[in-house]
Structure to design on (573 residues):
């Protein structure tokens, strides 16, 4: 798919519509998201369902409307999360790299500022993330954990619900390009 | 090749990144080795932030906890203050009710025990003028109340009715400067006149300089004013100062102690005995009126004399009779001349004086006080009306 085709098929691919997050906002929010995932469930186990790094990866990838940026954002956040977890480096990196890439691609084609779209995309990408991670765990690490579709769907729903106000909050930190 | 890479730039980058991570992953899995350096860097990088976040979290939690506790404490404090205020009001109300009930009970008990016929009344206001010595009570002429009636409490006299209106009456308190009542001391039987001073305490006037009055002694009504029945507490002596010709005796009125709210109006007074102890009026005994007592002792022996209304009258009549019996003419005689012997018994209707000037009573006559007559019935003392009993024995 060429850049010209992208522009042709998407009326949202206009770079003037893209919003740029300041670099310090990107880094700060990403680190906070990882820290949130690492530390908050220690004190509030009820929040362990929340996939904050994934939501942040999605958000920045969607907002930058660039698959390449999405790749690097996903890879960076995923590897950071890997490095702070017991998982081998690359497990979450691969999954989030793919999420970032697809989110960046989707952001070029759809109006990702709309709450309904955001809800739908979040629901989809959380399911995709969890499924892909489970598959990688089984295929690369030989893990035997069963996939729980209902639990995963419920988790995706909750993340999608949380994602709407979170994305709205992050919108405040961006500057129009 | 270059064109292909440029055309599929995004996909190429994705594949490269994924491949790199897969290689890294595969190496870790195959060699069972970790990449400690990366993890050390990552942990070292995030630890300060994590510490900061944890500090913020702890501080926030503490603050929140303190705030919640403080809010709870404030709420509790507010609630307790409100409750305290309510309980204070309730306590005050109950205390007032209890005091009222106690006063009413005491009043009722006193009313039952006192021989005088009384009617209870409640103080409903003070005088409208600047005179603080007047109060209004809620009994008037329709309840049988008349001007001049005595107003008392179990503690003592309160005042007298200044005016009786149909449904209310005006009471002149004992502290008013225009109030006066005859009183007698409990211990030494010294007589005087209780007089208001327009202040908290009253004065007992006309106490002779040689009369014995002690501080703390009680004064009771003497009944001689014909308003207050004899034997009601008037007040306690708080100070005695010598004077010439009269001593200055200050009395704390006992009927006004603790304020006046409920009173008794004496519709028909009965004279009572003055207690010797002077401490209380717990026992009420119906005794003969002062007049009756005098008549029994002296008045009956004096012919052609009006019945003595007071002890002073009786003494005056007795001295007069003794003087006449001894040929003494009062108001005459040089200073230093021999006075009549007032210690002699009263002369009989036909007295004979012996050579020594002694008055000899007739045979069969009785010395006064030698054998007092039986105690007569109590004498009503309606205000403004002399209620002396008729002579118990007519002179022969």
């Amino acid at each position: 798919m060429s850049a010209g085709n992208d522009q042709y098929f998407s009326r949202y691919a206009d770079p003037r519509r893209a919003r740029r997050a300041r670099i310090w906002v990107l880094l700060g929010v990403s680190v906070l998201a990882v820290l949130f995932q690492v530390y908050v469930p220690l004190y509030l186990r009820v929040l362990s369902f929340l996939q904050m790094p994934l939501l942040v990866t999605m958000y920045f990838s969607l907002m930058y409307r660039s698959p390449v940026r999405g790749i690097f954002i996903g890879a960076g956040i995923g590897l950071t999360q890997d490095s702070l977890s017991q998982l081998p480096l690359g497990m979450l990196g691969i999954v989030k790299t793919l999420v970032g890439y697809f989110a960046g691609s989707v952001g070029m084609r759809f109006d990702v500022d709309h709450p309904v779209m955001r809800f739908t995309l979040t629901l989809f990408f959380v399911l995709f993330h969890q499924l892909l991670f489970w598959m990688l765990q089984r295929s690369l690490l030989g893990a035997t954990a069963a996939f729980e579709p209902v639990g995963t769907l419920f988790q995706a729903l909750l993340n999608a619900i949380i994602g709407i106000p979170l994305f709205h909050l992050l919108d405040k930190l961006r500057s129009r390009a | 090749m270059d064109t292909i890479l440029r055309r599929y730039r995004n996909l190429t980058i994705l594949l490269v990144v994924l491949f790199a991570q897969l290689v890294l992953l595969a190496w870790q899995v195959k060699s069972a080795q970790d990449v400690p350096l990366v993890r050390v860097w990552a942990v070292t990088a995030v630890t300060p932030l994590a510490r900061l976040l944890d500090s913020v979290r702890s501080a926030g939690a503490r603050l929140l906890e303190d705030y919640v506790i403080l809010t709870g404490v404030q709420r509790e404090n507010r609630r307790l203050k409100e409750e305290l205020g309510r309980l204070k009001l309730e306590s005050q109300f109950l205390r007032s009710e209890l005091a009222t009930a106690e006063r009413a009970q005491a009043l009722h008990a006193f009313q039952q025990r006192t021989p005088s016929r009384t009617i209870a009344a409640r103080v409903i206001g003070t005088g409208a003028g600047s005179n603080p010595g007047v109060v209004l009570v809620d009994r008037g002429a329709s309840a049988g109340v008349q001007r001049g009636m005595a107003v008392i409490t179990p503690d003592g006299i309160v005042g007298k009715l200044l005016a009786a209106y149909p449904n209310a009456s005006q009471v002149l308190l004992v502290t008013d400067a225009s109030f006066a009542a005859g009183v007698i001391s409990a211990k030494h039987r010294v007589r005087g006149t209780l007089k208001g001073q327009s202040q908290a305490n009253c004065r007992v006037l006309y106490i002779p300089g040689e009369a014995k009055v002690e501080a703390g002694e009680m004064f009771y009504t003497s009944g001689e004013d014909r308003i207050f029945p004899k034997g009601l507490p008037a007040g306690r002596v708080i100070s005695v100062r010598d004077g010439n010709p009269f001593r200055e005796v200050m009395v704390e009125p006992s009927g006004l102690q603790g304020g006046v709210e409920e009173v008794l109006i004496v519709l028909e007074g009965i004279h009572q005995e003055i207690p010797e102890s002077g401490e209380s009026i717990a026992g009420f005994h119906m005794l003969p009126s002062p007049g009756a007592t005098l008549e029994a002792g002296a008045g009956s022996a004096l012919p052609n004399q009006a019945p003595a209304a007071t002890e002073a009258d009786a003494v005056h009549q007795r001295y007069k009779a003794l003087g006449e019996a001894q040929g003494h003419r009062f108001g005459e005689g040089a200073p230093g001349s021999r006075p009549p012997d007032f210690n002699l018994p009263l002369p009989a209707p036909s007295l004979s004086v012996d050579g020594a000037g002694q008055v000899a009573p007739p045979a069969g006559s009785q010395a006064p006080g030698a054998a007092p007559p039986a105690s007569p019935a109590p004498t009503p003392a309606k205000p403004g009306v002399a209620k002396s009993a008729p002579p118990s024995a007519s002179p022969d």
Observations:
- The CA atoms of residues 30 and 56 of chain A lie 7 Å apart.
- The radius of gyration of chain A is 16 Å.
- The mean pLDDT of chain A is 83.
